[in-house]
TrEMBL record:
Gene3D superfamilies: Aspartate Aminotransferase, domain 1 (3.90.1150.10), Type I PLP-dependent aspartate aminotransferase-like (Major domain) (3.40.640.10). Keywords: Aminotransferase, Lyase, Pyridoxal phosphate, Transferase. Pfam families: Pyridoxal_deC. Belongs to the group II decarboxylase family. Sphingosine-1-phosphate lyase subfamily. PANTHER family: PTHR42735, SPHINGOSINE-1-PHOSPHATE LYASE 1 (PTHR42735:SF6). GO terms for molecular function: transaminase activity. Its cofactor is pyridoxal 5'-phosphate. It comes from Streptomyces laculatispora. This is Aminotransferase class V-fold PLP-dependent enzyme.
Length: 487
Protein backbone atom coordinates (compact mmCIF):
# COMPACT_ATOMS: atom_id res chain seq x y z
CA UNK A 1 0.00 0.00 0.00
CA UNK A 2 1.41 3.39 -0.94
CA UNK A 3 1.63 5.67 2.07
CA UNK A 4 -0.11 8.97 1.67
CA UNK A 5 2.51 11.71 1.79
CA UNK A 6 -0.10 14.43 2.31
CA UNK A 7 -0.56 14.79 6.06
CA UNK A 8 2.32 16.39 7.94
CA UNK A 9 3.81 14.15 10.61
CA UNK A 10 5.68 15.45 13.68
CA UNK A 11 9.45 14.83 13.62
CA UNK A 12 9.40 12.50 16.61
CA UNK A 13 6.77 10.32 14.95
CA UNK A 14 8.69 10.24 11.67
CA UNK A 15 11.80 9.05 13.47
CA UNK A 16 9.80 6.49 15.44
CA UNK A 17 8.40 5.11 12.18
CA UNK A 18 11.89 4.79 10.73
CA UNK A 19 13.08 3.05 13.87
CA UNK A 20 10.21 0.58 13.69
CA UNK A 21 10.90 -0.14 10.01
CA UNK A 22 14.56 -0.80 10.81
CA UNK A 23 13.46 -3.43 13.29
CA UNK A 24 12.79 -5.91 10.49
CA UNK A 25 16.33 -5.53 9.05
CA UNK A 26 19.42 -7.56 9.79
CA UNK A 27 21.48 -5.84 12.52
CA UNK A 28 24.32 -3.69 11.13
CA UNK A 29 26.24 -3.60 14.40
CA UNK A 30 27.27 -6.35 16.79
CA UNK A 31 29.16 -8.65 14.44
CA UNK A 32 26.56 -11.27 13.56
CA UNK A 33 25.70 -10.14 10.02
CA UNK A 34 28.51 -11.50 7.85
CA UNK A 35 27.80 -9.61 4.65
CA UNK A 36 26.97 -6.07 3.55
CA UNK A 37 28.07 -4.38 6.79
CA UNK A 38 31.47 -3.31 8.11
CA UNK A 39 31.59 -2.72 11.83
CA UNK A 40 34.76 -1.16 13.21
CA UNK A 41 33.39 -1.53 16.72
CA UNK A 42 34.96 1.87 17.52
CA UNK A 43 33.36 4.11 20.09
CA UNK A 44 32.11 7.41 18.68
CA UNK A 45 32.64 6.54 15.00
CA UNK A 46 28.98 6.29 13.99
CA UNK A 47 28.13 9.54 15.76
CA UNK A 48 31.03 11.36 14.11
CA UNK A 49 30.08 10.13 10.63
CA UNK A 50 26.47 11.20 11.15
CA UNK A 51 27.50 14.65 12.39
CA UNK A 52 29.92 15.13 9.49
CA UNK A 53 27.21 14.13 7.02
CA UNK A 54 24.81 16.62 8.62
CA UNK A 55 27.35 19.43 8.39
CA UNK A 56 27.50 18.91 4.61
CA UNK A 57 24.00 17.60 3.89
CA UNK A 58 22.93 20.70 1.98
CA UNK A 59 26.19 21.24 0.10
CA UNK A 60 26.27 20.33 -3.61
CA UNK A 61 29.46 18.58 -4.72
CA UNK A 62 28.62 19.42 -8.33
CA UNK A 63 30.55 22.68 -8.40
CA UNK A 64 33.81 23.06 -6.47
CA UNK A 65 34.12 26.69 -7.61
CA UNK A 66 31.06 27.54 -5.55
CA UNK A 67 31.83 25.08 -2.72
CA UNK A 68 35.66 25.01 -2.64
CA UNK A 69 35.75 22.99 0.57
CA UNK A 70 34.43 20.02 -1.41
CA UNK A 71 37.60 20.01 -3.53
CA UNK A 72 39.73 20.24 -0.39
CA UNK A 73 37.96 17.25 1.20
CA UNK A 74 38.13 15.21 -1.99
CA UNK A 75 41.82 15.95 -2.52
CA UNK A 76 42.53 14.89 1.06
CA UNK A 77 40.63 11.60 0.68
CA UNK A 78 42.05 10.75 -2.76
CA UNK A 79 45.52 11.76 -1.54
CA UNK A 80 45.21 9.38 1.41
CA UNK A 81 44.22 6.57 -0.94
CA UNK A 82 47.11 7.32 -3.32
CA UNK A 83 49.69 7.38 -0.56
CA UNK A 84 48.38 4.13 0.92
CA UNK A 85 48.23 2.39 -2.45
CA UNK A 86 51.51 3.29 -4.09
CA UNK A 87 50.26 6.01 -6.35
CA UNK A 88 53.09 8.51 -6.65
CA UNK A 89 51.96 10.72 -9.53
CA UNK A 90 48.46 9.26 -9.34
CA UNK A 91 45.23 11.22 -9.62
CA UNK A 92 41.77 10.01 -8.73
CA UNK A 93 38.15 10.69 -7.89
CA UNK A 94 35.84 10.13 -4.95
CA UNK A 95 32.78 8.12 -6.02
CA UNK A 96 29.57 6.73 -4.54
CA UNK A 97 30.85 3.14 -4.29
CA UNK A 98 32.78 0.30 -5.85
CA UNK A 99 30.34 -0.11 -8.70
CA UNK A 100 30.68 3.53 -9.72
CA UNK A 101 34.49 3.40 -9.39
CA UNK A 102 34.50 0.36 -11.68
CA UNK A 103 32.06 1.89 -14.18
CA UNK A 104 34.33 4.92 -14.41
CA UNK A 105 37.53 2.89 -14.76
CA UNK A 106 35.96 0.89 -17.60
CA UNK A 107 34.66 4.03 -19.32
CA UNK A 108 38.11 5.59 -19.01
CA UNK A 109 39.73 2.52 -20.55
CA UNK A 110 37.18 2.38 -23.36
CA UNK A 111 37.67 6.03 -24.28
CA UNK A 112 41.46 5.75 -23.89
CA UNK A 113 41.58 2.73 -26.20
CA UNK A 114 39.55 4.58 -28.80
CA UNK A 115 41.56 7.80 -28.60
CA UNK A 116 45.01 6.26 -28.40
CA UNK A 117 44.67 3.02 -30.35
CA UNK A 118 41.59 3.49 -32.51
CA UNK A 119 39.73 0.59 -30.85
CA UNK A 120 36.06 0.71 -31.81
CA UNK A 121 34.88 -2.74 -30.67
CA UNK A 122 36.45 -2.78 -27.19
CA UNK A 123 36.87 -5.93 -25.10
CA UNK A 124 37.22 -6.32 -21.34
CA UNK A 125 39.41 -9.25 -20.25
CA UNK A 126 38.53 -10.45 -16.77
CA UNK A 127 38.89 -13.54 -14.59
CA UNK A 128 35.66 -15.48 -13.94
CA UNK A 129 35.86 -14.37 -10.30
CA UNK A 130 35.87 -10.63 -11.13
CA UNK A 131 33.05 -8.71 -9.48
CA UNK A 132 29.73 -8.55 -11.34
CA UNK A 133 30.15 -4.77 -11.52
CA UNK A 134 32.56 -5.29 -14.45
CA UNK A 135 29.82 -7.11 -16.37
CA UNK A 136 27.47 -4.28 -15.52
CA UNK A 137 30.04 -1.78 -16.82
CA UNK A 138 30.49 -3.80 -20.02
CA UNK A 139 26.71 -3.93 -20.51
CA UNK A 140 26.21 -0.23 -19.82
CA UNK A 141 29.19 0.95 -21.85
CA UNK A 142 29.16 -1.42 -24.81
CA UNK A 143 32.26 -3.54 -24.22
CA UNK A 144 32.49 -7.26 -24.87
CA UNK A 145 33.42 -9.19 -21.72
CA UNK A 146 36.05 -11.90 -22.30
CA UNK A 147 35.85 -14.17 -19.25
CA UNK A 148 38.89 -16.27 -18.38
CA UNK A 149 38.46 -19.28 -16.05
CA UNK A 150 40.42 -19.19 -12.79
CA UNK A 151 42.66 -21.90 -11.34
CA UNK A 152 40.36 -24.63 -9.99
CA UNK A 153 42.31 -25.26 -6.80
CA UNK A 154 43.46 -21.77 -5.76
CA UNK A 155 40.54 -19.77 -7.23
CA UNK A 156 43.13 -17.20 -8.38
CA UNK A 157 43.20 -15.76 -11.88
CA UNK A 158 45.35 -17.70 -14.34
CA UNK A 159 47.88 -15.13 -15.57
CA UNK A 160 48.95 -17.18 -18.60
CA UNK A 161 45.37 -17.66 -19.76
CA UNK A 162 44.62 -13.97 -19.14
CA UNK A 163 47.64 -12.99 -21.26
CA UNK A 164 46.47 -15.31 -24.04
CA UNK A 165 43.02 -13.64 -24.02
CA UNK A 166 44.43 -10.18 -24.80
CA UNK A 167 43.77 -9.05 -28.39
CA UNK A 168 44.30 -5.79 -30.29
CA UNK A 169 40.73 -4.89 -29.23
CA UNK A 170 41.35 -5.30 -25.49
CA UNK A 171 40.67 -2.01 -23.72
CA UNK A 172 41.25 -3.21 -20.15
CA UNK A 173 42.51 -6.25 -18.23
CA UNK A 174 41.20 -6.81 -14.69
CA UNK A 175 42.67 -8.41 -11.56
CA UNK A 176 41.20 -8.52 -8.05
CA UNK A 177 42.96 -7.91 -4.74
CA UNK A 178 41.24 -9.85 -3.38
CA UNK A 179 38.22 -11.27 -5.21
CA UNK A 180 34.91 -10.83 -3.44
CA UNK A 181 33.74 -14.42 -3.85
CA UNK A 182 36.73 -16.24 -2.36
CA UNK A 183 38.92 -13.53 -0.85
CA UNK A 184 42.06 -14.58 -2.74
CA UNK A 185 44.52 -12.19 -4.41
CA UNK A 186 45.10 -12.58 -8.14
CA UNK A 187 48.69 -12.61 -9.49
CA UNK A 188 48.66 -8.87 -10.18
CA UNK A 189 52.33 -8.39 -11.26
CA UNK A 190 52.07 -11.13 -13.93
CA UNK A 191 48.71 -9.94 -15.25
CA UNK A 192 49.76 -6.27 -15.28
CA UNK A 193 53.03 -7.13 -17.06
CA UNK A 194 51.19 -9.08 -19.76
CA UNK A 195 48.83 -6.13 -20.30
CA UNK A 196 51.67 -3.59 -20.40
CA UNK A 197 53.58 -5.65 -22.92
CA UNK A 198 50.62 -5.30 -25.30
CA UNK A 199 50.09 -1.61 -24.50
CA UNK A 200 46.81 -2.37 -22.69
CA UNK A 201 45.56 -0.83 -19.44
CA UNK A 202 45.19 -2.92 -16.29
CA UNK A 203 42.74 -2.26 -13.44
CA UNK A 204 43.16 -3.70 -9.96
CA UNK A 205 39.85 -4.14 -8.16
CA UNK A 206 40.90 -3.49 -4.58
CA UNK A 207 37.39 -2.39 -3.64
CA UNK A 208 37.29 -4.67 -0.65
CA UNK A 209 40.98 -5.17 0.04
CA UNK A 210 42.50 -1.78 -0.68
CA UNK A 211 42.10 -0.35 2.79
CA UNK A 212 42.90 -3.63 4.54
CA UNK A 213 45.86 -5.25 2.79
CA UNK A 214 48.42 -2.44 3.35
CA UNK A 215 47.56 -2.47 7.06
CA UNK A 216 47.81 -6.23 7.24
CA UNK A 217 51.28 -5.85 5.76
CA UNK A 218 52.11 -3.39 8.56
CA UNK A 219 51.21 -6.02 11.15
CA UNK A 220 53.56 -8.50 9.51
CA UNK A 221 51.25 -10.45 7.24
CA UNK A 222 52.74 -11.58 3.91
CA UNK A 223 50.82 -9.67 1.20
CA UNK A 224 51.93 -9.99 -2.44
CA UNK A 225 52.35 -6.80 -4.50
CA UNK A 226 48.99 -5.60 -5.81
CA UNK A 227 48.79 -1.80 -5.92
CA UNK A 228 49.60 1.09 -8.26
CA UNK A 229 53.33 0.69 -7.61
CA UNK A 230 53.24 -2.58 -9.59
CA UNK A 231 54.50 -1.93 -13.16
CA UNK A 232 51.62 -2.08 -15.62
CA UNK A 233 48.82 -1.33 -13.13
CA UNK A 234 47.12 1.76 -14.52
CA UNK A 235 44.04 2.13 -12.30
CA UNK A 236 42.71 0.86 -8.99
CA UNK A 237 39.44 1.03 -7.06
CA UNK A 238 39.14 1.03 -3.27
CA UNK A 239 35.96 1.31 -1.24
CA UNK A 240 35.99 3.44 1.88
CA UNK A 241 32.59 2.06 2.87
CA UNK A 242 34.16 -1.36 3.36
CA UNK A 243 37.42 -1.59 5.34
CA UNK A 244 37.65 2.21 5.52
CA UNK A 245 34.56 1.93 7.81
CA UNK A 246 32.95 5.03 6.27
CA UNK A 247 29.18 4.99 5.85
CA UNK A 248 27.73 3.66 2.61
CA UNK A 249 28.43 5.72 -0.49
CA UNK A 250 32.21 6.15 -0.38
CA UNK A 251 34.87 4.84 -2.77
CA UNK A 252 37.91 6.10 -4.67
CA UNK A 253 39.12 5.33 -8.18
CA UNK A 254 42.80 6.06 -8.82
CA UNK A 255 44.69 6.40 -12.12
CA UNK A 256 48.41 6.34 -12.72
CA UNK A 257 48.29 9.98 -13.92
CA UNK A 258 46.04 12.89 -14.79
CA UNK A 259 46.31 12.19 -18.53
CA UNK A 260 44.57 8.87 -18.11
CA UNK A 261 41.95 10.26 -15.70
CA UNK A 262 40.97 12.87 -18.28
CA UNK A 263 39.14 10.14 -20.22
CA UNK A 264 36.84 9.68 -17.23
CA UNK A 265 35.54 13.26 -17.30
CA UNK A 266 32.45 14.32 -19.17
CA UNK A 267 32.31 17.92 -20.32
CA UNK A 268 29.52 19.53 -22.28
CA UNK A 269 29.06 23.13 -23.36
CA UNK A 270 26.46 22.52 -26.10
CA UNK A 271 23.31 23.48 -24.25
CA UNK A 272 21.97 26.76 -22.93
CA UNK A 273 22.54 25.93 -19.25
CA UNK A 274 25.72 26.19 -17.18
CA UNK A 275 28.88 24.63 -18.70
CA UNK A 276 28.93 21.03 -17.46
CA UNK A 277 32.00 19.15 -16.25
CA UNK A 278 31.12 15.93 -14.44
CA UNK A 279 33.99 13.77 -13.19
CA UNK A 280 31.54 11.06 -12.09
CA UNK A 281 28.16 9.61 -13.07
CA UNK A 282 26.19 12.01 -10.90
CA UNK A 283 25.43 15.65 -11.56
CA UNK A 284 24.27 17.02 -8.23
CA UNK A 285 26.42 15.16 -5.76
CA UNK A 286 25.92 14.70 -2.02
CA UNK A 287 28.91 16.34 -0.33
CA UNK A 288 27.76 14.76 2.95
CA UNK A 289 29.05 11.36 1.84
CA UNK A 290 32.47 12.83 1.14
CA UNK A 291 32.48 14.73 4.43
CA UNK A 292 31.65 11.66 6.49
CA UNK A 293 34.32 9.58 4.73
CA UNK A 294 36.87 12.37 5.29
CA UNK A 295 35.92 12.57 8.96
CA UNK A 296 36.13 8.81 9.47
CA UNK A 297 39.59 8.61 7.86
CA UNK A 298 40.89 11.37 10.13
CA UNK A 299 39.28 9.99 13.27
CA UNK A 300 40.59 6.44 12.84
CA UNK A 301 44.06 7.47 11.60
CA UNK A 302 46.74 5.28 10.11
CA UNK A 303 47.65 3.47 13.34
CA UNK A 304 43.96 3.03 14.07
CA UNK A 305 43.44 1.27 10.75
CA UNK A 306 46.42 -0.94 11.43
CA UNK A 307 44.98 -1.90 14.83
CA UNK A 308 41.61 -2.64 13.20
CA UNK A 309 43.31 -4.75 10.51
CA UNK A 310 45.04 -6.73 13.24
CA UNK A 311 41.63 -7.50 14.74
CA UNK A 312 40.29 -8.61 11.36
CA UNK A 313 43.34 -10.85 10.94
CA UNK A 314 42.77 -12.29 14.40
CA UNK A 315 39.11 -13.00 13.59
CA UNK A 316 40.05 -14.56 10.24
CA UNK A 317 42.76 -16.72 11.76
CA UNK A 318 40.50 -18.03 14.52
CA UNK A 319 37.61 -18.63 12.17
CA UNK A 320 39.72 -20.36 9.53
CA UNK A 321 41.31 -22.63 12.13
CA UNK A 322 37.87 -23.47 13.54
CA UNK A 323 36.36 -24.11 10.12
CA UNK A 324 39.27 -26.30 9.04
CA UNK A 325 38.86 -28.33 12.22
CA UNK A 326 35.14 -28.86 11.60
CA UNK A 327 34.37 -32.21 10.01
CA UNK A 328 32.62 -31.87 6.65
CA UNK A 329 33.64 -28.23 6.15
CA UNK A 330 36.08 -27.22 3.40
CA UNK A 331 37.50 -23.68 3.16
CA UNK A 332 37.90 -22.56 -0.46
CA UNK A 333 41.37 -21.39 -1.45
CA UNK A 334 43.72 -19.50 0.84
CA UNK A 335 41.89 -16.28 1.72
CA UNK A 336 44.14 -13.30 2.46
CA UNK A 337 41.97 -11.98 5.31
CA UNK A 338 38.62 -10.39 5.80
CA UNK A 339 36.71 -12.77 3.55
CA UNK A 340 36.13 -16.47 3.97
CA UNK A 341 34.19 -18.84 1.71
CA UNK A 342 33.55 -22.42 2.72
CA UNK A 343 31.55 -25.32 1.42
CA UNK A 344 30.29 -28.43 3.15
CA UNK A 345 30.86 -31.92 1.88
CA UNK A 346 28.20 -34.52 1.97
CA UNK A 347 28.38 -38.28 1.82
CA UNK A 348 31.33 -40.61 1.38
CA UNK A 349 32.42 -39.19 -1.98
CA UNK A 350 33.16 -35.82 -0.40
CA UNK A 351 31.23 -33.85 -3.01
CA UNK A 352 30.05 -30.35 -2.06
CA UNK A 353 26.48 -30.79 -0.85
CA UNK A 354 24.31 -27.94 -2.08
CA UNK A 355 21.21 -29.01 -0.18
CA UNK A 356 23.14 -29.39 3.05
CA UNK A 357 24.86 -26.03 2.52
CA UNK A 358 21.57 -24.20 1.98
CA UNK A 359 19.96 -25.90 4.96
CA UNK A 360 22.97 -24.80 6.98
CA UNK A 361 22.49 -21.17 5.91
CA UNK A 362 18.83 -21.34 6.97
CA UNK A 363 19.67 -23.00 10.27
CA UNK A 364 22.28 -20.31 10.97
CA UNK A 365 19.80 -17.58 10.13
CA UNK A 366 17.37 -19.07 12.63
CA UNK A 367 20.15 -18.80 15.19
CA UNK A 368 20.65 -15.09 14.38
CA UNK A 369 23.62 -15.28 11.98
CA UNK A 370 23.60 -14.13 8.37
CA UNK A 371 26.07 -16.01 6.15
CA UNK A 372 25.85 -15.23 2.44
CA UNK A 373 25.04 -18.16 0.13
CA UNK A 374 26.97 -18.14 -3.18
CA UNK A 375 25.76 -20.55 -5.85
CA UNK A 376 27.89 -22.82 -7.99
CA UNK A 377 29.47 -21.24 -11.05
CA UNK A 378 31.53 -22.62 -13.91
CA UNK A 379 32.64 -25.67 -11.94
CA UNK A 380 33.38 -23.67 -8.77
CA UNK A 381 31.51 -25.06 -5.77
CA UNK A 382 28.58 -23.38 -4.02
CA UNK A 383 29.58 -21.93 -0.68
CA UNK A 384 28.77 -19.72 2.25
CA UNK A 385 30.59 -16.41 2.36
CA UNK A 386 31.56 -14.38 5.43
CA UNK A 387 32.92 -10.85 5.64
CA UNK A 388 34.84 -10.40 8.88
CA UNK A 389 35.17 -7.10 10.70
CA UNK A 390 36.78 -6.04 13.97
CA UNK A 391 33.41 -6.55 15.66
CA UNK A 392 33.53 -10.22 14.60
CA UNK A 393 36.45 -11.08 16.86
CA UNK A 394 34.28 -11.47 19.93
CA UNK A 395 31.77 -13.59 18.02
CA UNK A 396 33.98 -16.23 16.43
CA UNK A 397 33.70 -18.81 19.21
CA UNK A 398 29.92 -18.47 19.43
CA UNK A 399 29.71 -18.68 15.63
CA UNK A 400 31.71 -21.89 15.50
CA UNK A 401 29.64 -23.47 18.28
CA UNK A 402 26.40 -22.58 16.52
CA UNK A 403 27.82 -23.72 13.19
CA UNK A 404 28.47 -27.14 14.63
CA UNK A 405 24.93 -27.44 16.02
CA UNK A 406 23.42 -26.02 12.85
CA UNK A 407 25.38 -28.46 10.70
CA UNK A 408 24.01 -31.38 12.73
CA UNK A 409 20.50 -29.98 12.42
CA UNK A 410 20.97 -29.49 8.67
CA UNK A 411 22.16 -33.08 8.22
CA UNK A 412 19.02 -34.33 9.94
CA UNK A 413 16.74 -32.52 7.49
CA UNK A 414 15.41 -34.17 4.35
CA UNK A 415 17.40 -32.87 1.36
CA UNK A 416 15.81 -30.10 -0.67
CA UNK A 417 15.67 -30.92 -4.33
CA UNK A 418 14.38 -29.28 -7.46
CA UNK A 419 11.14 -30.76 -8.68
CA UNK A 420 12.26 -32.59 -11.87
CA UNK A 421 9.10 -31.45 -13.68
CA UNK A 422 9.92 -27.84 -12.88
CA UNK A 423 13.54 -28.26 -13.89
CA UNK A 424 12.41 -29.65 -17.21
CA UNK A 425 9.88 -26.88 -17.71
CA UNK A 426 12.45 -24.23 -16.81
CA UNK A 427 15.10 -25.66 -19.12
CA UNK A 428 12.69 -25.35 -22.05
CA UNK A 429 11.81 -21.70 -21.39
CA UNK A 430 13.29 -18.93 -23.49
CA UNK A 431 14.02 -16.15 -20.99
CA UNK A 432 13.60 -13.43 -23.59
CA UNK A 433 10.12 -14.61 -24.51
CA UNK A 434 8.59 -15.18 -21.06
CA UNK A 435 5.20 -13.62 -20.42
CA UNK A 436 3.97 -12.38 -17.04
CA UNK A 437 2.00 -15.57 -16.35
CA UNK A 438 4.96 -17.90 -16.93
CA UNK A 439 7.16 -15.70 -14.76
CA UNK A 440 4.62 -15.72 -11.97
CA UNK A 441 4.22 -19.49 -12.22
CA UNK A 442 7.96 -20.16 -11.94
CA UNK A 443 8.38 -17.66 -9.10
CA UNK A 444 5.44 -19.23 -7.26
CA UNK A 445 6.93 -22.68 -7.78
CA UNK A 446 10.07 -21.37 -6.10
CA UNK A 447 8.02 -20.09 -3.17
CA UNK A 448 8.28 -16.46 -4.26
CA UNK A 449 4.74 -15.20 -4.26
CA UNK A 450 5.24 -12.02 -6.23
CA UNK A 451 4.37 -9.73 -3.31
CA UNK A 452 8.08 -9.28 -2.61
CA UNK A 453 7.92 -11.38 0.55
CA UNK A 454 10.57 -14.01 1.15
CA UNK A 455 9.92 -17.45 2.59
CA UNK A 456 11.44 -18.06 6.02
CA UNK A 457 13.69 -20.75 4.59
CA UNK A 458 15.57 -19.90 1.42
CA UNK A 459 16.95 -23.37 0.62
CA UNK A 460 14.11 -24.39 -1.75
CA UNK A 461 14.41 -21.08 -3.64
CA UNK A 462 18.18 -21.16 -3.92
CA UNK A 463 18.38 -24.80 -4.98
CA UNK A 464 16.07 -23.99 -7.85
CA UNK A 465 18.05 -20.90 -8.81
CA UNK A 466 21.25 -22.93 -8.75
CA UNK A 467 19.79 -25.40 -11.24
CA UNK A 468 18.49 -22.85 -13.74
CA UNK A 469 20.41 -21.74 -16.81
CA UNK A 470 22.10 -18.33 -16.31
CA UNK A 471 19.93 -16.13 -18.54
CA UNK A 472 16.71 -17.55 -17.05
CA UNK A 473 18.11 -17.07 -13.57
CA UNK A 474 18.88 -13.45 -14.35
CA UNK A 475 15.43 -12.83 -15.79
CA UNK A 476 13.71 -14.34 -12.75
CA UNK A 477 15.88 -12.41 -10.32
CA UNK A 478 15.04 -9.18 -12.11
CA UNK A 479 11.34 -10.02 -12.01
CA UNK A 480 11.53 -10.90 -8.35
CA UNK A 481 13.24 -7.67 -7.40
CA UNK A 482 10.75 -5.83 -9.58
CA UNK A 483 8.05 -7.39 -7.42
CA UNK A 484 9.80 -6.15 -4.27
CA UNK A 485 9.75 -2.60 -5.61
CA UNK A 486 6.11 -2.48 -6.59
CA UNK A 487 4.03 0.40 -5.26
C1 LIG B 1 32.08 -4.58 -3.00
C2 LIG B 1 32.91 -4.88 -4.18
C3 LIG B 1 32.66 -4.28 -5.42
C4 LIG B 1 31.44 -3.43 -5.70
O1 LIG B 1 31.32 -2.39 -4.82
P1 LIG B 1 29.94 -1.76 -4.32
O2 LIG B 1 30.47 -0.80 -3.33
O3 LIG B 1 29.10 -2.85 -3.75
O4 LIG B 1 29.29 -1.08 -5.47
C5 LIG B 1 33.54 -4.57 -6.45
N1 LIG B 1 34.56 -5.39 -6.28
C6 LIG B 1 34.82 -6.01 -5.11
C7 LIG B 1 35.98 -6.94 -5.00
C8 LIG B 1 33.99 -5.78 -4.03
O5 LIG B 1 34.22 -6.41 -2.87
Amino acid sequence: MPTDPAPAVPAADVLAELGALRGADAPTRGGRTFAYVYDAGLEGLDELAAAAYSAYASVNGLDPTVFPSVARLENDVVGAAASLLGGSGAQGTFTSGGTESILLAVKTARDHAKAERGVTGPQLVLPSTAHAAFHKAAAYLGLEPVVVPVDRSTYRADATAMAAAITPDTALVVASAPSYAHGVIDPVPEIAAAAAERGVLCHVDACIGGWLLPHLRRVGQEIPPFDLSVPGVTSLSVDLHKYGYADKGASVVLYRDAGLRRHQYFAHAGWPGYPVVNPTVQGTKPAGLLAQAWAVLRYVGEDGYTALAARVAEASGRLLAGLRATAGVRVLGDPSAGLVAFTVVDGPDGEPGLSLLLHLADEMRERGWYLQPQLSFDGLPPNLHLTLTPATVGQVDALLTDLDTALHAARALPPVAVDPALAELAAGLDPSKLGPDEIEAVLAFAGLTGDGGLPARMAPVLILLDALPGPLKERLLAEFVGSVFRI
